[in-house]
């Protein structure tokens, strides 16, 4: 399998794309997408098999400060909605043939593990570390040991999942706060530029949220390195996703990144292992205030810009058909020579 950094193989893929029956670059960013997938999978005839949509869920201690427009109970209620098939991501997973796996990383309600659910049905894995993180305004949200266990859980989950594509999703009331904190700390950006309305706060609510998050930053001044910042300011679901991303990248799976919160997990992972970004496809630019800045930090150009801010992996699922089309075009579209079509002369 050719390495993604192999310049000869990359040039071969680009030549194949340039010689398809079309003007050079006429398929726009779909060509760049096809190139990326071919690089990740190490083939000029990529096929995405048994795609896995991984939704990690947890509660956050910061939610007690009113940083979300919704109460904490919604995290557990949405986990049940995912499994019942009524959530947006559940509908999209069914539509596109994505295997939906929900992970209880730290929800403030107990669930029964349903890892043995029938093939194709949504399933729940219980990897609970606690009933939500601690209040980051009073110190680290999780211990170093808890953070390490969450990373290990994410790695182990991916090892058990089949296929060569992993779509990322999340659920957790208060987790846009965790993502904003991680962006501000790791990118050294002003907190106000990283913080938005989340689930729909009004202007006063956003100001209250920013004040709470500033207290969290002030309470954790020592957390500058990626793992230290993750433990102090992140969430159990974000840390589990970091482990999942690191493992998926090591296995050369195509990683489809959803929005702001899954982007925060990839940001942390990329500060640990920069090559992670070579395995990623960024699904969309969300309506969350700091997402543009986060994407810029990773030099990422998302596929879609639809004003989405739902999370759950919904944007990743919506972008999925574009990946399938890019693969089909690289595999099946004829060259000028094969089709007997004259090439451009000037």
From TrEMBL:
**Enzyme type, top EC level:** transferase
Keywords recorded for this protein, A-Z: Cobalamin biosynthesis, Glycosyltransferase, Transferase
Query: What pathway does the annotation place this protein in?
Result: Nucleoside biosynthesis; alpha-ribazole biosynthesis; alpha-ribazole from 5,6-dimethylbenzimidazole: step 1/2
Q: What does this protein do?
A: Catalyzes the synthesis of alpha-ribazole-5'-phosphate from nicotinate mononucleotide (NAMN) and 5,6-dimethylbenzimidazole (DMB).
Q: What is this protein called?
A: Nicotinate-nucleotide--dimethylbenzimidazole phosphoribosyltransferase
Keyword Electron transport on this protein?
no
Might you give the EC number(s) for this enzyme?
2.4.2.21
* UniProt-listed NCBIfam families: cobT_DBIPRT (TIGR03160), PRK00105.1 (NF000996)
The gene name on file is: cobT
Family designation: Belongs to the CobT family.
Q: Where is the active site?
A: 312 (proton acceptor)
> Pfam families attached here?
DBI_PRT
Please give the catalytic activity noted in the UniProt record.
5,6-dimethylbenzimidazole + nicotinate beta-D-ribonucleotide = alpha-ribazole 5'-phosphate + nicotinate + H(+)
A GO MF label: nicotinate-nucleotide-dimethylbenzimidazole phosphoribosyltransferase activity
Q: Which organism is it from?
A: Verminephrobacter aporrectodeae subsp. tuberculatae
